[in-house]
Amino acid sequence: APDVLTLETGGAEHSRQEYLSGHARHDAEFLKSAGITLKQRKAEASGGMVWVGSESEIRTERNGKSLLVNSTESAVLRNTSDGWRIVHLHWSSKSDR
């Protein structure tokens, strides 16, 4: 959604444009060569809203060294006249070396 709220690494972006012009590039670069294993996902729907919670393991390299990141994500979607739109995203992660 144009007014999506994205929370990541202690910061917030308050619109789709703000996220796409900032963190999105860094996130895409980080994930480009990463292997992602979905560990668990749960979703619930009520009326015109859905929330999804996921736990994943991300394997990649940083500075030539293997990196394992445990990641959690939550998303809230709203059914609009244009279809389902993400209105809130939150990522949290920690590295295990």
Short description:
With 97 residues, the protein is mainly beta. The protein has helices at 16-20, 23-31, and strands at residues 5-8, 11-13, 35-46, 49-62, 65-80, 83-96.
What structural class is derived from the secondary structure elements? mainly beta
Quaternary state, please? single chain
Report, as a whole number of angstroms, the end-to-end distance: 36 Å
Q: Give me the number of helical elements.
A: 2
Question: What is the approximate shape?
Answer: globular
Q: Mean of residue pLDDT?
A: 93
Binned, the helix content reads: 10-25%
Strand content: over 45%
H/E element sequence = EEHHEEEE
Total number of beta strands? 6
With strands numbered from the N-terminus, the spatial order across the biggest sheet is: 2-1-6-5-4-3
Q: If you compute it from the alpha carbons, what radius of gyration comes out, rounded to the nearest whole angstrom?
A: 15 Å
Biggest sheet details: 6 strands, mixed
What does this structure look like?
A hairpin with a 2-residue loop joins β1 and β2. The protein has helices at 16-20, 23-31, and strands spanning 5-8, 11-13, 35-46, 49-62, 65-80, 83-96. It contains two helices and six strands. The chain is globular and about 45 Å long. The protein is mainly beta and 97 residues long.
